[in-house]
Structures are given as structure tokens and as C-alpha cells.
Amino acid sequence: KEVVQVKQVKKEKKQHKEEKKEKSEKKQKSAKKEKKAKAEKAKSEKKDEIKDEAKDEAKEETKVEQEEAGKEDEKEQNEINQTKESLDKLPGNQELTAFQLAERKTRTVFVGNIPVGMAPKKVWKVFKGCGKIEKIWFRSIAPSTMVTDRRNIVKGGMIGTQKNNKNAYILFAEGSSVAEAIKLNGYVVHNSDFTEQFHLRVDSEEKKDDFSSTIFVGNLPFIINEEDLRRHFERLGTIVNIRIVRDNRTCVGTGVAFVQFSTKEEVAQAVEKCKNEKRFGKFKGRELRVKRAVSTKKREKKIEKKLEKKRDTKNRRKSHGPTGQTREFQSKFVKSFDRREQAGGPKVYNDIRMKKHRRNKMMNEMIENQGESKIRERSRKFVTKKVDFRGKRKQRREDRKEMNTRNMKKTVKRS
């Protein structure tokens, strides 16, 4: 019985020890988890503080940086749809509700590159096979002067020479006729004299631009027409649409255009040929700036990435900068020790060419050791005399003249 009791006591002790170990391990694990959570919270709080500081500092800088880095992107972004005028501004649509406007958009078609002298009846004849037409609005007619009312431009014959075409909106009675009207994209129309031909550009009002198969063309002349660009880029592939970005009031071009091809492969070929071959890279004496068109969202992301990189570099400079010392203090501190050593002889140090982390180490050593540092001694150069470069050039010229005269005399004697 005594032996059994001893064994039971031993078992109980072991169980008690194991329970203590398990409890202690659980406590340690929980404490570690709490420490990690606290550290993560502190890190997140620090990051949030740094981000808030960077945002406050970058508010004033973002305006200037966006103007410098994204002038071209802003032009593309703000002026992509200048040729298309919204339906809200058209006469008769201002009093409609949002639901009525949305319903009208499904029945409207945008037609571009129409000859200026083309009458509404001729436009109606082109699109009458698609379905019943309710209304036709003509827009973007170039004025000869700054006229307030658009009706006076046509009635008074005050049409300018900035462009030879106009745009129109056609409202059909049924939405099914829009698909048939879009099939007329690229339809050839002649002017009144039958001297020029115009390729119509037909799009639905709700259609979004396809940037994957389009090209951005910059540095164009301000007075330009769509047919001129078509003749230039026809050799590179089949053109679907051409859109020139113009000013709303004067209808003068802004030097920017978008050319849409049928496939993505033609876009890559066009960009390569415009960069490598001069006949495609130049247009009316101007060197074109050709690249792939990018959507507005991608442009905004690029600008945001550039700004984030600049903010990160500034934060890194603050964190990895000199230990409580500014750049001005560094230069003054170093010059003070250079003046003391001038009596011993002329010495030159390559402090400017050092990298930042190496320069910071050097400064810490000089502050601790009263101006002495091994890093700075290794970068030292000894200078004995100043070099007179002008005098050396003169001597070389004189030596050449003497050599030439000697050679001339030798050749005369031989002859």
C-alpha cells in the first residue's frame, strides 16, 4: 500500500509540473503575441504619422509637380472629347430630365468630318436608309471672327478657314437604327466642287474610346484637317477613325491628334516606323511625337506613382540624413579644420564626390575625434602647382607652326 501511495504521489507531482509548464508556455505565447501586436500597432501608427506628414508637405508641391510632369497628359485627358459636345448643351435638350437624356443617347449618333458646305438634305440622304431621322444638329463650325451666336456664322457667311469640316448629331426615331448608321463609318463624301473627298467618322454617343488600337500624335501644326493626317498615316495600316483636338471657340488645333487603327499590330508598326523612318516621322516640316495612346485612368496612376516616389525619397532623406546636422553646418565644420591645416601645406579633399552614407560616417568621426577621420585622409590629394592651361595651348600652337615651316622648307629643297 505504501508503494502504491508513493507512485500515486509521484504521478500527481508530474501532472502538476506538466500543468505548470503548459500554463507558463501559454502565458509566454500570449505575451509574445501581445508584444507583436503592440509593435505592429506602433509601426502602423508611425507609418500613418509619416504618411500624414508627407501628405501635408506634398499638398503644396503636388500642384507644381502635376503641372510640370503632366502638361501633355492633362492636355490629352481634358481635351480628348472636345470634338464631341455633350447632348445637354444642344438646343431642345436643356429642359429634359436625366432619364429622357439617357433614352435619347441610345438613339443619337455622332458624325464627324462632314464638309462645311454640305447641306442638311444631303446628310439626310446619306443616313435615311438606316431609319427615320427626327433631328440633325450641326456643330464645331470654324468662325472667321469671335462671334457670340452660332447662327450668325452660317447665315452671315462668317465661316473661317481653320478647318474645312464640321460635326453633327443625328437623332433617330428608333434605337435599332444606330447600329446600321455605325456601319457607314469611313463612308466617302465629296465637297460641292468634287475636288476633295471626306471620310465620315460615325460613332454612337455612348461608345467609349478604344485606346489599345490608337496612336497619340503630337507636335502637329495648329491649322490642319483630318484628310491630311489620313494621307500621311494611310501607308501604315487601315485607319478606323481620326480625331484632332481643337479649341472650342476658335476651332484651331492644339497640336494633338488621335489615330485609331483596326488592329494592335498596326499600332506597334506605326510607332516603330515613325521613330525610325524620317518620311513617317516628319509632317509639314515638323518632327512628330508619336506614341501609344493611354487611357485616363492609367495616366492618373502614372502621375500618382511619380509623386509617391518623390515623397518616399524625401522621407528616406529625413530618416537616413546626417545625425542632427544640416548640410550648411557640415560645410562650415569641415572648412574650419581645413583652415588650420593650411599652414602645413596645400591639401585638397574629395568630399563632394562622396556618397551620402560615406559622408555621414566621416562627419560623425570628425565630431567625435575633433576633426580627424580615416575616411577623409584616404580621399585626400596633394597639389604642388597650379596648371596654366592657356599658356600650354599657346606653346602647342607655336610648336605646330615651327614644325609646319620646317616641313615646307624640306619639301621645297627636294623639289
UniProtKB/TrEMBL annotation:
Listed name of the protein: RRM domain-containing protein
Domain of life: Eukaryota
Organismal lineage: Eukaryota, Sar, Alveolata, Ciliophora, Intramacronucleata
Magnesium in keyword set: no
Basic and acidic residues biased stretches: 15-28, 37-78, 301-311, 388-404
Location of the region described as Disordered in the Swiss-Prot/TrEMBL record: 1-87, 294-343, 388-415
Record bears the keyword Cell division: no
Cellular compartments per GO CC: nucleolus
Gene Ontology terms for molecular function: RNA binding
